[in-house]
Amino acid sequence: MSNTTSKNNPSPQPEKKTSHRTINFDQTRLSRTLFTLALPAVVENILSLSVYIIDAILVGHLHSESALAGTVLSGTIMMLIQTPFQAMGVATIALVARSWGEQDIPKARRYARQSISLAWILSLVLAIVGFLFAFQMIHWMKAAPNVIQAGGSFMRIIILSLPFQIPMFICSGIFRGSGDTRTPMYITGIINVLNVLISWVLAFGIGPFPKMGLMGVAWGTMIAQSVGGMIALTILVQGWSNLRIPIWGLFTWNKSIIYQIWIIAYPVMIERFITTSAQVVFYGIITRLGTTALAAHNVALRVESIAFQPPWGVNVAVATIVGQALGARQTQFAELTVKKGLQWIGIGMAFLSVAFLLFSHQFVQIFGATPEVLRQAGIVLKIAAVEFPFIAFFAVLSGCLRGAGDTRSPLYVMLICLAVFRFGVVYLFAIVFNWGLPGVWWATTLDWMARAGGLWYVFHKGAWKYTYDRLLDKKI
User: Fold this and answer.
1) How far apart are CA 6 and CA 185, in angstroms?
2) How far apart are CA 128 and CA 156, in angstroms?
3) Is residue 15 part of a domain?
4) DSSP letters of 427-460?
5) Do 363 and 455 belong together in one domain?
6) Can you tell me the distance from the alpha carbon of 60 to that of 369, in angstroms, rounded to the nearest whole number?
7) Is 12 a member of any domain?
């Protein structure tokens, strides 16, 4: 460790490698293992998504297209700000899972506490920057003045939760890497309850509280997210999960550990940053179609995102299993896990596609927006049903690669597909061919097809099995 200590506090003795129970590597129990890890992650993702769906429903019932459009634009900026923390969360899952599979728990603890320290410092900086430039960021997306006012005001409140919310990203990665996918689910459930109660009360002025409208939804979300992050950190410090991190161990600085976190995190960070930045261009195309199209796109995304949750739940399970399996030198088990995950999710998403084809217009009614917004949203959701299987395959394969520490391959695939489809084909279909919002969604369907195909090629080559040996040979 590079930390300095005083004479009164001599350097601690090196931690010994200890034994700890990992996941079950019995191939006959693979389905049970995958299901046990995936189900809580699916539920957690649905609950996490519900926070934003509830926000959209509450804002929709304010019957203001500018407010609805403003929240989706501010949400895009928040995704950009959260990019480095999401990347660190991916690296944390991979590194903790690898250490857990090796049964080297002290090393897993060192990875975990260094990730938290880095994330918290960075969150303070980005919260200040985001607060100061909220309105300018919304303006860069070429929105109308009333949308800029609504989105900037909403974002300034939400971003106050960043220093408290960010530990949730990293702590969730620590929980999952150690095989605990239930604790993040419970915490997200608490966030949901708080968000519903506080946002509803403040938005519509229930009881003694004044009616705050959009700002009430923002304050409710900010408070709920902050509380969730503090709960996650408390659980780790108190040792109420698989891995305990003493409070004095959170403020560390070890160059070797930082290097290993960085070598896995930076491709994810670049990928998320470029993807989210590209959303500015992407939404710039949609805003040219008008505020109604932008609001309809927002509603359709909220409904479609429900379908994302099973694949991304399996993504978490696959990343955890692959990381631990490679750490335990169970390469064949890791490969079988991916194939089983693809089989599961392929069947499940086929049923979901049929449901969206049949009931898309009914699904959007809960958002209470204007009739034209709901009509357009229902149309594009039928298109979304076509892309579901490809999104599912992409999610499972990316979970495998990232759990193995290969974060570069998804970056390369994303860059190619982004340039060709998210920019080129979207503009061609929506503007040049004048297909409008449906053209945007047909282009993104082609994008998901290409991404799934690219990752399947990388998985089939098999180089991901040896990523740790190439990248993480530096002792800590």
Assistant:
1) 41
2) 10
3) no
4) HIIIIIS--HHHHHHHHHHHHHHHHHHHHHHHHH
5) yes
6) 5
7) no
Q: Which domain holds residue 73?
A: 45-263
Mean local confidence (pLDDT), 116-124: 88
With respect to residue 410, please indicate whether it lies within any of the assigned structural domains: yes
Q: By the 8 A CB rule, do 191 and 225 touch?
A: yes
Within 8 A by CB and 6+ apart from 335, the residues are 465
Question: In 3-state terms, what secondary structure has residue 26?
Answer: coil
Residue 475, helix vs strand vs coil: coil
In residues, how long is the chain?
476
Domain boundary among 263, 298, 330: 263
Q: What SS3 state is found at 326?
A: helix
Burial class (CB in 10 A: 0-12, 13-18, 19+), 368: middle
Say how far apart CA 37 and CA 90 lie, in whole Å.
16
Question: How do residues 124-176 score in pLDDT, each as one tens digit?
Answer: 898 899 899 888 888 877 777 888 888 888 999 989 888 887 778 888 889 99
Closest CA to 334 of 346, 350, 323, 343: 323
List the one residue out of 79, 81, 214 whose CA is nearest residue 157: 214
Dist CA 97 CA 330 (whole Å) = 13
Structure tokens belonging to residue 309:
């949750």
pLDDT single digits (tens) 73-88: 787 788 778 888 888 8
**What value does the mean pLDDT take over residues 108-117?**
89
What whole-number distance in Å separates Cα of residue 341 and Cα of residue 336? 8
Residue 459's pLDDT is 95
Distances in Å between the Cα of 349 and the Cα atoms of 38, 53, 158, 338 are 15, 21, 33, 16
Number of domains in the chain: 2
Same domain, 293 and 341: yes
Gap between the Cα atoms of 256 and 247, Å rounded: 21
Contact residues for 351 (Cβ-Cβ < 8 A; gap 6+): none
Question: Closest by alpha carbon to 304, among 26, 53, 17?
Answer: 53
Per 3-state DSSP, the chain is made up of helix, strand and coil in percentages (nearest 5) of: 80, 0, 20
Instruction: Calculate Rg over the CA atoms of the chain.
Output: 22
Residue 431 CA to residue 29 CA, distance in Å, equals 51
Q: Note whether 334 and 321 are within 8 A (CB).
A: yes
